[in-house]
């Protein structure tokens, strides 16, 4: 069998993250260097499995938007390849985009038109959309995002969260195989964030693959089945969220009213990286029998209320992989 050439590498064999036929997005060595020399995306191998809610996570400036713009055919890569729904981008952009709903940098809305009329305009701009079924389609999209009751209000009277939902409704006027959402909860209040997150979960349960970027770790942990972590234009890791977090070691947590004494005993026992608060001591999980450690605490007269290993979070994984904290402020 012929080896794949450098110009057209096999786009789906990217580290065994997902089988070929299941990849909705697959990139190989995707790279973007802007004029002026800024290397925004550096050799990215991304594999997004069909049916996943895929979180594209990274601090501000890590290259998420640039990647999304390449995937949507809005800018050309400097080198490398990208496939979306099995087709090469940018070559097949026109054939692929009708199957992709995208919400990038906030929806373009007419404030003086109602939510419903905004969607009617969107639908009318789509040459494949049958005008006879327009009202039904628009009504269904509004209901889907929970804007049925507010459909007659002018868009300028909408909250930011409602505007985002209207943008999502526009992306959902046609059946889509893939939704691409760039920081969909950015700037929203907690309630608006919750609405968008539950909407995303609902869409995914209908079988649509959702690819969403975020700089919020807990958001990715809450809604995504899979994630890729970016830092400074490079992919740090990707895979199922549960596996990513499991890759990092958790922390030993001893809950006790005698935190000072507990820390002293743990230190004597060779436990490292102790953090003491009023009610507990956390530390690196030592490579030894934990029951013996607990016994040592009790023998020393430390009153132990709780003793265990806290599950590692995606944040722990990020810190373990990069050696840096996850800087949300960028
Ligand atoms: N058109 C451009 N010209 C030059 N540099 C750019 C351009 N667009 C982005 N960059 C730079 O590329 C890097 C990656 O930016 P990008 O917007 O892709 O990051 P991001 O992860 O999406 O962050 P954010 O959430 O802030 O948008 C940044 O250093 C940015 O300044």
From TrEMBL:
Checking InterPro entries in the record gives: AAA+_ATPase (IPR003593), ABC_transporter-like_ATP-bd (IPR003439), ABC_transporter-like_CS (IPR017871), P-loop_NTPase (IPR027417)
User: Do the record's keywords include Transport?
Assistant: yes
Q: Which residues form the ABC transporter domain?
A: 25-257
Query: Does Nucleotide-binding count among this protein's keywords?
Result: yes
| TM region(s), chain numbering | none
UniProt KW keywords: ATP-binding, Nucleotide-binding, Transport
PROSITE patterns registered for this protein in UniProt = ABC_TRANSPORTER_1, ABC_TRANSPORTER_2
SMART domains (UniProt xref): AAA
What molecular function terms (GO) are annotated for this protein? ATP binding
Q: Which Pfam families match?
A: ABC_tran (PF00005)
Q: Which family does it belong to?
A: Belongs to the ABC transporter superfamily.
Q: What is this protein called?
A: ABC transporter ATP-binding protein
């Amino acid at each position: 069998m012929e080896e794949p050439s450098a110009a057209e590498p096999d786009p789906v064999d990217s580290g065994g993250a997902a089988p070929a036929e299941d990849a909705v997005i697959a990139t190989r060595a995707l790279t973007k260097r802007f004029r002026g020399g800024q290397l925004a995306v550096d050799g990215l191998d991304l594999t997004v499995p069909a049916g996943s809610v895929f979180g594209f996570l990274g601090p501000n400036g890590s290259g998420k938007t640039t990647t999304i713009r390449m995937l949507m055919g809005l800018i050309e890569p400097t080198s490398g390849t990208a496939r979306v729904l099995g087709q090469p981008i940018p070559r097949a952009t026109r054939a692929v985009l009708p199957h992709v709903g995208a919400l990038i940098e906030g929806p373009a809305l007419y404030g003086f038109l109602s939510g419903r009329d905004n969607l009617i305009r969107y639908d009318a701009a789509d040459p494949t959309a049958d005008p006879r079924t327009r009202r039904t389609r628009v009504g269904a999209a509004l209901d889907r995002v929970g804007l049925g009751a507010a459909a007659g209000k002018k868009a300028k009277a909408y909250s930011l969260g409602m505007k985002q939902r209207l943008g999502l409704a526009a992306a959902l006027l046609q059946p889509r195989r893939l939704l691409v959402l760039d920081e969909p909860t950015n700037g929203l209040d907690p309630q608006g964030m919750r609405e968008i997150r539950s909407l995303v979960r609902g869409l995914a349960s209908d079988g649509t693959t959702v690819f969403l970027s975020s700089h919020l770790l807990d958001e990715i942990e809450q809604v995504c089945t899979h994630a890729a972590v970016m830092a400074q234009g490079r992919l740090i890791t990707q895979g199922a969220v549960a596996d990513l977090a499991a890759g990092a070691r958790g922390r030993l947590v001893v809950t006790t009213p005698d935190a000072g004494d507990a820390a002293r005993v743990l230190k004597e026992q060779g436990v490292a990286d102790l953090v003491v608060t009023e009610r507990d001591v956390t530390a690196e999980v030592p490579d030894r029998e934990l029951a013996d450690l607990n016994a040592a605490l009790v023998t020393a007269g430390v009153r132990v209320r709780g003793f265990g290993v806290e599950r590692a979070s995606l944040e722990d994984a990020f810190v373990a992989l990069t050696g840096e904290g996850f800087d949300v402020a960028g």
